Amino acid sequence: MTANTPPRYDVIAIGNAVVDVIASCEEELIEELQLNRGGMTLIDEARADELYEAMPPAREISGGSAANTLAGLATLGLQCAFIGQVADDQLGKVFRHDMRATGIDFDTPARDGEPATGRVLIFVTPDGERTMNTFLGAGQFLPAAALDEELIASGAILYLEGYLWDPEEPRRAMRRAIEVARDAGRKIAFTASESFVIARHGDDFRAMIEDGVIDILFVNESELATLTGEDDFEAGLAAVAGKVPVLVATRSEKGAVAIAHGERAEVAAVPVIKVVDTTGAGDQFAAGFLSGYAKGEPLTQCLKRGAICASEVIAHYGPRPEADMQALMAERL
Question: What is this structure's pTM?
Answer without folding.
Answer: 0.90
